[in-house]
Predict the structure.
Amino acid sequence: MTVLDTRPGSQYDSSGHPEVVNDFSIVIATVNGSGSQTANNTIIRSIFKMGIPVNGKNIFPSNISGLPTWYTVRVSKDGYVARRQETEILVAFNLQTADADLQSLKEGGACFYPDDYKFMNPRKDVVYYPLPVKQLVKESGADTKLKDYIANMVYVGGLAEILGIDLAKIKEALVKHFNGKAKPVELNYGVVSKAAEYVRQNLPKKDIYRVAPLDLTHGKILIEGNTAAGLGAIFGGVSLVSWYPITPSTSVVDTINEYLHELRTDPASGKLTCAVVQAEDEIAAIGMLVGAGWAGCRAMTATSGPGISLMTEFAGLAYFAEVPLVIWDIMRMGPSTGLPTRTSQGDILTAYFLGHGDTRHVCLLPGNMQECFEFGTTSFDLAEHLQTPVFVLSDLDFGMNLWMTEPFQYPEKPLDRGKVLSEEDLKRLGSFKRYADLEGDGVGWRTLPGNPHPMSAYFSRGTGHNAEAAYSERPDDWEENLDRLARKHDTARTLVPPPVVQTRAGANIGVIAYGSSDPAIVEACDLLEAKGVAIDYLRLRALPLEEITSKFIEEHEILFVVEMNYDGQMHKLLQIHSPENAARLKSIAHCDGLSLTAQFITEKVMSVLQ
Amino acid sequence: MTAAVKEPGAGGAKLNLLGFDRTEYKGKPSTLCSGCGHDSIASQIIAVAWELSLEPHRVIKTSGIGCSSKSPAYFLNRSHGFNSLHGRMPSLTTGAVLANKDLQAISVSGDGDTGSIGLGQYKHLLRRNVPMVYIIENNGVYGLTKGQFSATADEGQKLKYAGVNELPPIDLCLEAIASGCGFVARSFAGDAKQVRELLKAALSYKGGTAVLDIISPCITFNNHEESTKSYSYGKANEERLHDISFIEPQGEIVVDYEEGTAREVRMHDGSTIVLRKLGDDYNPQDRNAAISKLDEAQAKQEFITGLLYINEGRKRIHEALHIVDTPLAELNEAQLRPPREALDKIMADMN
Ligand SMILES: Cc1ncc(C[n+]2csc(CCOP(=O)(O)OP(=O)(O)O)c2C)c(N)n1
Ligand code: SF4
C-alpha cells in the first residue's frame, strides 16, 4: 500500500465559501499517556499569545494510558469560552477512534491525520491534511523514549501552517512550557517547523478556517482553577493543609506544595509556615482540620465527592462544635465513582446539608478564575468569622483546564480571624461564655488553647451543650442552641458574596446559574437575544441563598435554573427558598459528563417559550 | 516525689510549683458507673498533673467516643478539651498539636475506640509520631453501647447478648511497637502507684507519642471471673516487669535501690525512670525483646505491666514536616501572607 492509496479522496473545495477567522473549534483526539498535553498546551498558548481569546478542555478517561482522550480548543474572536457542540478542525491522531471522530466533523471541516492511516468511511465533504508523522519523527533524531511526544508536535506544525498560527508564538509557548530549557525547546520546535515546512510544500490550504492576530488577550494570564485555588489559599494565610489524593482535586494541593517553599518559608529559620500532611484517608484529613481549626490555624483540604462523603461525620462535628475550616470540593460526576474524570455540579445538596440531623453549611460557588483565587482567601475569612466549615464548590472543568483571566489582585483586606478573645480581653471582660450570642449574630466568642487566662478553657463536643459549653440534654438548651445556629446561618447570608446580576432591556425572563456554567450562559443569553429573546442572568456565588435572589425571582415571569446535575439540585434549593414562586422556576439540567454548551441552553429555553 | 510541692496555701492545702492546690486540676464530677476503672485513671491524671506542675493552659484534652472518652471532662477543668468522634481522636489531636506545638496533649480513648473503629488512625498517628500522651482505657468491651465485644476482648470470653468471642484479641501495645512508637507501657487501673509513675514518665517523654494501655475494668459489663479485664483478674494476675519510679529532672534524686537490681532510663528532658528488677532482667530499650515478651504473654494469656519499650530516637511530626518553631496558630499576618511582589511575579510568569 502506498501512502497515496490510503488518502481519502475529498472533493471538498473551499472556493466560494467565505473564510472564517478566529471563530472555530479544534478537537485533538489522541491516546491517553502519549504526552499530548504538551502539544495541546502549546497550541492554546500560542493562539493566546496572538491576542485571540481561546479556551482548552481536556476530555480524558479515568486511566493512565492507552485510552482515547480529546482535547478541544475553542478559538473565539467574541471571547466565548464555553464548549461548543460543533467541530471545525479535527486532529485524528487516535486510530482507535479516528473513524468515529471523522463523523463528528462539521461539513467543510478539516481533518489532520497520520498519512499511513486508512479511514473506513472517508467523507467527501471535508478537507484532509495527511501528515507524514513517522518520517518527521525519524528525521527529528529523537530517541525512542521521546518518539510519542515528538509525534504530537507534528500536528502542532500542521495546524500552525494551515490555520496561520505564528511559529514565533509557538516557540514562545514552548519556552514557557519547558521553563526556558533550551534542549527540549529546540527538539520540539524543530519538529514543529519541519512539519509546517512539509505542509507548506505539499498540502495546499483548502479549508476556510484561520486565525489572525487580535489584541484581546493583552495583559491576561492562562491558569487552571486548581492552581488559582492553591495560590488563593497560600495568599490567604493557610497554615495547615491535610488531604488525601483524588481526581480532580489533587492539583489544588500540588500547587500549594509547588509554591510553599518559595512563598511560605520563614527567612530566619528556613522552615515552613504551613504544614502539609498527606492523610491516610479523607476522614483523617478533615479530622486534622478540626483539630487545627480549633487550635487557631487556617486549615483546609481539597477533595471530591467520594471524599466529601467520608468527611460527613466530622463536617457535622465541626458545624456543631463551631470550628472553622475550609473544604474545596472539586466536583466530578457521580453517583458513586461515576465518571471520575468528567465534570459535574452534583454535590450541591450533599455539601450544603453534609451531616446528620439539621446541618447546613456555607458554600461558595466560584464562577471564574478570579473567584477561584479570591475564594481561596476569603473562604478562610468567612470560616473564621462565622466559626464554621466553609465549602468551596468548584468542578473539574474549572479545576483542570486552562482559562484566560486578568491577573489576580493582591488581597487588600487584612485576614479576618473572627471573634477570638486574648488573655487581656478576658481580664477586661471578667466573664466568658463560649456560645453566648452577645451581638445577636449567632456567633459566640472563642478562646484558643494556650490562652493562659483561668477563664479561657472550655470543652468542645458534638453532644448537646449550653451557652457555657457545658454538656446539656435539656430541651430548652437544645432549642436555644439550634436557634442560635440558625441566626448564624442568617448572618452568613449577609456575608457571603452576593449574586452577580446582568440585565437586558425589556427582559421578563430570568436565568439562574452558578459555577462553570457561566461561560455557556453568557453565550446563550447573546444567542437568545439575537433570536429576539431578552434574558436577565443571575449568577449565584454562594449558599445560603439571600435577598437579591428572592427579588430576582419575583421580578421575572419565567425563570430557568441551569446546572450540571440530573435532578436539578439548585433548582430544588431555590424552590425551597422561594416556595411561593416554586412553580415558575423551571429546571434546565444537563448531565452527560461534558460541560454545558450555549446551544443546549438555547434549545431548551426556546422549547419552553414556544 | 516532693520536689514540686511548695509550702501549704490558704486552708493548709499543699501547693505545687505554680502555686496551685490539687483542686485546680480537678474536672467535673464523673457520670460514669461508680467503681469504673476509668475514674481511677482520671484521678491519677489529676494527681500527676498537679505533682508535675503542668501548666493547665498548655494542656489540651482530647478523646474519641465511649465511656472512656468522656473522662477528659473529669480532669483538668482549666484545660481546653475536645470530645470528638468515635475512633477519630488521633487525627483531631494531630491537627491541634500541629497547630500549636507548645501544647501538651493528654488524650483518652477506649479499646473499642482505638482497637476497632479507630485502628487505622491509631497506627497512622504512631507512624507520624505526634507528640502526645495517648491513654487507652482498655476494658475489653464496649461500655457506652452496653456490652459488645471490642477488638481487645479475649478469645473464648462470654457476654450476655454477644455470646462467645471466637476471635483473638488485638494487643494494642504490640501494634504500637510495630508502628514505631517510642514509648509503650501497660498498666492496671487498680495499680494506682504504677499508673502514676508511668503517667509521669509519659508526660516527660519528649520523643513523640507515648502510649499507655491501661487495663480498666468495666464493672458493669465486663467484671466477671472469666474476664482478663476484671479487677479480680488484674489483682491476681498482674505480672510486673519491674517496679517503676519516675524522677523529675529538677527533683532531688534519692536512689534507694540496691546495686545490680535496677535499671535507670534517662530521658531527653533529664528525667529518669528507675526500673527495679522483679523477675528477669528486662531491657525496655530492646525492641525485639519487647515484641517477644508481649507475644509470649499473649500466648499464655499473661498480663504483664510496666514500661514495655522506650526509645527517643525518632523524628517527631514537626521535624518531619519542617515547620517553624513558633506555633503555627501564633503566626502573624506578615508571616502568613506572602508580599504583594510575590503575587505580581507569579502573575507575570503566567502570561
Ligand atoms: C460512628 C459511630 N459508630 C458507633 C457509635 C456508637 N458507640 C458509642 S461508644 C461505642 C463503643 C465504645 O467502646 P470503647 O471505646 O471500648 O469505650 P468504653 O465505653 O468501653 O470506655 C460505640 C460503638 C458511635 N458513637 N459512632
Ligand atoms: S459501663 Fe463500664 S466502662 Fe462504662 S462507665 Fe460503666 S463501668 Fe465504666
Observations:
- The two ends of chain A are 56 Å apart (CA to CA).
- Chain A touches chain B through 73 residues (CB under 8 Å).
